[in-house]
Amino acid sequence: MATRAKKTVKRKTAGKTAAGVSRKKASAKKGAAKKKVAAKRKPPAQKAAKAVSRKASAKKVSGRPARSKAAKAAKTTARKAATGRKAAAGKTAARGTTRATKAAATRTSTRSTSRQTAPRGASRRSTTVVRTKATASTPRTSAAPRGAVRTLSQSAAGTPAGTVCRRPNSFYITTAIAYPNGNPHIGHAYEAVATDALARFARLDGKDVFFLTGTDEHGLKMIKTAQAEGLTPAALSARNTARFRDMDERLHVSFDRFIRTTEEQHHRATQEVWQRMQANGDIYLDSYAGWYSVRDEAYYKEDETHVDADGVRRGGDQNTPVEWVEEESYFFRLSAYQHRLLKLYEEHPDFIGPDSGRSEVLSFVRRGLRDLSISRTTFDWGVKVPESKDHVMYVWVDALTNYLTGIGFPDENDGNWNFWPADVHIIGKDIIKFHTVYWPAFLMSAGLPLPKRVFAHGFLLSRGEKMSKTTGNVVDPFDLADQYGVDQLRYFFLREMPFGQDGHCNHEAIVTRTNADLANDLGNLAQRSLSMIGKQYDGGLPEPGEFSEADEAMLAQADAMIALSREAMATQQIHQWLNVVWATVAEANRYFANQAPWALAKTDPARQKTVLYVTAEVVRQIAILAQPVVPLGAGKLLDSLGIGADERHFGMLGGSVRIAPGTQFPAPTPAFPRYVEPKTQVLWRWIRRWMRWCWSTAIATSSSRNLPPMSTASSRARRPRASAAWFRCRRGCGGWMRCLRSWIVSTMSTAQSGPIPTTPMRRTA
After folding, report:
1. Distance of CA 590 to the CA centre of its chain
2. What stretch of H or E contains 340?
3. What is this structure's pTM?
4. With contact defined as beta carbons under 8 Å apart, do 318 and 468 qualify?
């Protein structure tokens, strides 16, 4: 029985063993199948490493010790494969982009990286980067450096490399877009005219120019102004925007596009920029509490504000009122771009102009940047945040994107998109921080090339203060254009003050520039010389004789103008360009006066012909070069010289081309008439002269008798009779004189449709 039981147990054990063996075999087969599939998915480098490992293991199982060379080879192969994968993945991530428009470039970069860094035969799959889209409401916590997803290398020209194929010989220039919460003032006119002069200069110099201007119609200021007037923001913006466009047309501003931020295309462009920044992990949701300036559309720290004597808290360089704001807001990771911005300023010092503005921006960035609130929930007049309709974009994301919208963005197949990046943004110095800190950071985050230059001009001051709709000290540019003339106003803006510095605007300075520079110097020179040609040679330009030393010197100075002007305008030094031109005007007047062609008509007619020819040639070059600033007057001069429309560009300057002898001139017409004072102004001027004479006479009488100052009470008893009589007359007639002055000033103001400041102006050469 015991033996039978033992046999039964043996059979059962054998059965179990057989079953276990069969299960093991099945499991081994499945494992082999899995390994086969896995091997197919693995790169050849990994398969080679596994094969070496298996050989070493087999030798160990068979009782033979594995050779150390094989083990080392396996480890080395595995390490190389891992290194290749990491390097390829890192390069792919650096070159990658989150937008569909760059997918082809990314794939090409991945393939080339795979070939260069992976071992021979390695799969391209080893360089694939899986990129997850950052959640907008969660701050990015990765320790990777900012911008690692999208690397924007700087090119030699100062523009980050991108997908934009720049149009050859193009020139893209913009103004800041103005808030239409009120009518335009001469500060807006100054910026528009200056930018127009730069654009016209580039066009005449043979460049393909795109000039953008417009209005920024969103923001809290628009809402508050509309509520005060009982209008909707849309109605207010439509009414006032038309006025801004009328101002540009009245001042002959040659813009290519006038953009409005209420356009549907602009909404799409701004949302596209937002989504690109969000995909790069630079936007997150948080709450904001701090001081906000409605006028500046800017947030200020506690230490950037102060309470004035009236108990009003103010902040910023402009000393504007601020209010406390608490709300949920999306933030842009501006702090992540501090080092990249400093590197930009260091490698491209011409990015910011003038130098005073560059110093200000460098100081601001070096103090440290903090993340920027870029959305609001307390109003709904603006561009909606994608996938979060309770938020509208903060004005600077919305407003700055207009420079992209104006040339077709987000449609990168638009014919004007290849004007980007902009050659220069012309702005006021009060918004330089937003254009040189926020704007490049936004573009870096969105993966777009940066503009080449931002230039901040100064302010036109009225009684020492910046002109502003808020302070109410504005002067209407329409009235000035009607009173003085468009060319005269344009010339005054650009000639009177260095571009980039502050200046004053007043009646006396405008009249001086109009009559001295335009009417007397240039207008009189052209009128005298062309009238002489018309009378003595029946309007035909005479054939010149041999040039004298004076003739050669005069022509050489005229020929040199274009090179000096290009050099000045390359850095937006408009006043230097005009200094060059009007220095030639002054020299031409001296030449004409010294040569005296009216006397040569009798003594040396041949010499007179040469002098008149040289003068006509110099006037031609001056008129061509002055077109960007005085287009109407310069056009009249060129008409009087018989110059065709296709011969008025800068390629006709520099001495390579001369005016043809025998050209028939029409009868000349005055290009720059003198400014004549209205009768009320003439009357008041004579009264002021009489009062100054009386006062100087009284001072002279007192000084001759060595009397104490007239203002002291003790000196009144010792004044001479003439002086005492004068002061009694002055005291008795003082009230009458004040009334007379008030009446004259009010009459002048009515005639001029608004008073003009009479503050003395700083003059430039």
Report:
1. 40
2. helix 338-347
3. 0.69
4. no
